[in-house]
Amino acid sequence: MMELVLLLVTLLLTVTGLQTLAFYAIWYYERRTRPDEAKVPGDTPIKVWPGLLGILVEWASITFLVVTYPLRLLHDASPVRARKQGEPPIILVHGYGGDSANFLLMQWRLKQRGWDNVYAVSYTPPTMNARKLAQQVVDHVDRILAATGAEKAYLICHSMGGPLTRYALQHLGLAGKVEKVVTLGSPHAGSSIANLFPAMGAAAQMRYRSAFIQELEEQAGPTPGGARFYSIYSNFDNFVLPSSTAVLGGEAQNIHVPYHGHCALLYSNRVLAEIETCLREGPPEAIPSQSPD
């Protein structure tokens, strides 16, 4: 039995390690061949040792994400309850191929730090059209607002969750229901990495400057629906290529967190601190008191 467990652990670490190295090889190629598009506000030269550490952290992060993936079966079955009636809920929206379990650690940590109404949602399947996935996001927001009695929500969106939310705000009646949107490593202009996935459903629509992305930019603009937007991104993101695609225009506030891989954004202390700073900007009455660490 122990031998089987060791074999499975070794296989998992090998697969996630090779995937991490492969995506960073593509990241390096993109920075060398399209240096202008790889530049982002706050960009600095990548140093060897911090870069290697960042790769190791990303490897650990994607491994943890894979291991916890099945926990969505328990998480999604939990009924939506308000811990504090009327307080704006924080709704965590995952990326392509992910699920609500991607946010287990962030959800727990936010609750520990004084945010009472925190919910992670799943939308499936990723092969579905992005417009239909965006409608699922709207349905989750409506359900959680009804349960909490709040008028507006805060959305934290990882990866593809950002473009889906922007589309929902412009086209699917989500406008007026969201106070703030914080995106983490979202490919707002699409990503070259999406070309590696089968050309169907949301994967094709998330390709760099795809027809869907261009339509979104032309019709919705960078910050639709009256919500305040914050984009947290990294020039070390191995899924969002080129790096500049994560930068939002318009009135959005862009925040660079160097040496963070795509999955590492979900588990980073630095990113959590930046998220809280974004959420606490605004009217005092909408902001819960912070619990001591």
Written description of the protein model:
The chain has 293 residues and is an alpha/beta fold. The protein has a single domain (72-286), classed as 3-Layer(aba) Sandwich (Rossmann fold), CATH 3.40.50. It has helices spanning 2-33, 35-38, 48-68, 72-75, 104-112, 130-148, 161-171, 201-205, 211-219, 269-280, and strands at 90-93, 118-121, 153-158, 178-184, 228-233, 253-256. The protein has a six-stranded parallel sheet, sandwiched between helices. Strand 3, helix 7 (161-171) and strand 4 (178-184) form a beta-alpha-beta unit. Helix 1 packs across helix 3. It is globular. The model is unreliable at 283-293 (pLDDT under 50).
Key features of this structure:
293 residues, alpha/beta, Rossmann fold, six-stranded parallel β-sheet, 10 helices, 11% strand, disordered C terminus
Quick summary of this structure?
By secondary structure, the chain is an alpha/beta fold. The chain has helices at 2-33, 35-38, 48-68, 72-75, 104-112, 130-148, 161-171, 201-205, 211-219, 269-280, and strands spanning 90-93, 118-121, 153-158, 178-184, 228-233, 253-256.
